[in-house]
Write a structure and sequence with these properties.
137 residues, mainly alpha, 2 domains, 3 helices, rod-shaped
Length: 137
């Protein structure tokens, strides 16, 4: 155009039409990029889900442990009160005698619970009752 006295300084191209193969390649590149990003986001979501599940399970176990600890503490307090009450109401009874009696009572409760269970296949072997306290210890 300079032959005719014109100089092109800047031009605006509004409709670029690349070859179909180039378009297809560019679309595949964009699709692959989006798929990669989607896979990353999905993996991050699964990671967060697993972390939250683990945190929930840990909290549940912690609270269950607190409950068990409180239950055992209540049992110990109850046993303590029983021993003190029995020792004061029965003169000459030692703490060992009271604990042996509690142990035998728990033994009989356990035997009863096993025997009344519908699916129980336990076999009871006869033995001396005196052995029960020594076996339990």
């Amino acid at each position: 155009m300079s032959l005719y006295g014109y100089e092109i300084v800047q031009t605006l191209i509004v409709d670029v039409e690349p070859d179909d193969q180039v378009k297809s390649s560019m679309n595949e590149i964009n699709a692959a990029s989006r798929l990669r990003e989607a896979a990353f986001e999905k993996a991050e979501g699964e990671k967060i889900l697993q972390i939250k599940q683990a945190e929930g399970e840990a909290e549940s176990n912690y609270l269950a442990g607190l409950g068990i600890a409180r239950q055992r503490q209540a049992i110990v307090e109850g046993l303590k009160e029983s021993v003190i009450g029995f020792s004061t109401s029965v003169p000459g009874a030692s703490t060992k005698d009271v604990m042996d009696m509690i142990l035998i009572t728990q033994y009989f409760d356990t035997m009863k619970a096993i025997s009344v269970s519908a699916n129980s296949s336990a076999v009871f072997i006869p033995h001396e009752l005196e052995d029960a306290t020594s076996e339990q210890r």
